[in-house]
Amino acid sequence: MLEKIFSKPGKVKYSNIHLLAVLLGALYRYHQDFAVSVIDNVLENITLGLEQNDFKFNQRRISEVKYLGELYNYKMVDSTVIFDTLYRIVTFGHEGGTPAPGKTTPFDLPDDFFRIRLVSTVLDTCGICFDRGSSKKKLDFFLTFLQYYILTKDSLPMEIDFLVQDTYSLVRPQWKIVTDLTEAAHLFSEAISTNYKQQNADKAADA
């Protein structure tokens, strides 16, 4: 019963979701297995939401990703969990794991912008923490991918456009958001190449 309560942030007032994370953090000290089960449930529910993609569960889905962000803020999950979830949100159901213009999936249609809202919720909750070291590089790479993903969609409604601008302004105030798909694809390709070279350099240094 208690596990169900802690696994369903949608049942809590949105402004109090952080308190649920605080309480779980307190329980973690003495009941580690319980807390791990709750986190697993939340991650499963986020994936289930991507599979179902039913608009009647939208508010619940927003609450779940908000909760995950708060769990990061209270050191219940690490940055790997956050970035894995961000990429899952953007790529789930897309052929080859990469969204592409002209290739549609029933899980994420070109005129469905809800995933952008999910990503913004996560980043608005904990994105400012990724401002140094490897987590900064990870977020910069993801933001490059995100702007490409956004441009594979139909034109954004004004509300979503403002949401995206606010999120980028919060986590990377100096970021210049690209509005051309070809340029966004080029920047993403460059980011992949730079990331690959860095990984090889790191491997060579470790050898």
Share of helix, binned: 55-70%
Query: Largest beta sheet, briefly?
Result: none
Gyration radius over CA: 18 Å
> Helix and strand succession?
HHHHHHHHH
Q: Please report which band the strand proportion falls in: under 5%, 5-15%, 15-25%, 25-35%, 35-45% or over 45%.
A: under 5%
Q: Based on DSSP secondary structure assignment, what is the total number of beta strands?
A: 0
* Number of helices, counting only DSSP H or I runs of 4 residues or more: 9
Low-confidence stretches are none
Overall 3D shape:
globular
Q: Give the mean pLDDT.
A: 93
The span between the termini is 50 Å
Structural class: mainly alpha
Keywords summarizing the entry:
207 residues; mainly alpha; globular
What can you see in these coordinates?
- By secondary structure, the chain is mostly helical.
- The protein is 68% helix and 0% strand.
- The protein contains 9 helices and no strands.
- Helix 5 packs antiparallel against helix 6.
- The longest helix has 26 residues, at 181-206.
- The radius of gyration is 18 Å and the shape is globular.
